[in-house]
Amino acid sequence: MRLQDQLCFPLYACSKEVVRRYAPLLDPLGLTYTQYICMMVLWEEGEATVSHLGERVLLDSGTLTPLLRKLEEKGYVTRERGIRDARQLIVRLTPEGRELERRAASVPRGMLQCVDLSIGEAAELKRLLLKVLGQLRQDQH
Questions:
Q1: CATH class, 30-104 region
Q2: How would DSSP label each residue in the chain?
Q3: Fewest beta carbons less than 10 Å away: which of 16, 88, 106, 119?
């Protein structure tokens, strides 16, 4: 039972460090890392239900609700009840939220400068992380 022999520790430490490195890139945009990943889904899709957004970013509605409220206060999104199903809460980008995508375009490049991985190494790392994540999430069901 040595820390250096455990897979969990480098995963934890790397995740924490990656989020820390995002902060100076996201601070000028007024976003936290979690807000940023939610905005990325909305930039892809334009709108999403809170439940769909939660599935995409692996967060529960209790975590998403205050996060989305802050994004709405900043003018980046609106939240509205569904017309067909009032139980659904639909999150939509505002024009300001769409404009934020243009301002955030430099964030991925900034993160790439933090690590020295080839395209192949980055693809392999992503593949392995998604494999582990998929297996761990499958065990939940």
A1: mainly alpha
A2: --GGG-SHHHHHHHHHHHHHHHHHHHGGGT--HHHHHHHHHHHHHSEEEHHHHHHHHT--HHHHHHHHHHHHHTTSEEEEE-SS-TT-EEEEE-HHHHHHHHHHTTHHHHHHTT----HHHHHHHHHHHHHHHHHHHHHH-
A3: 119
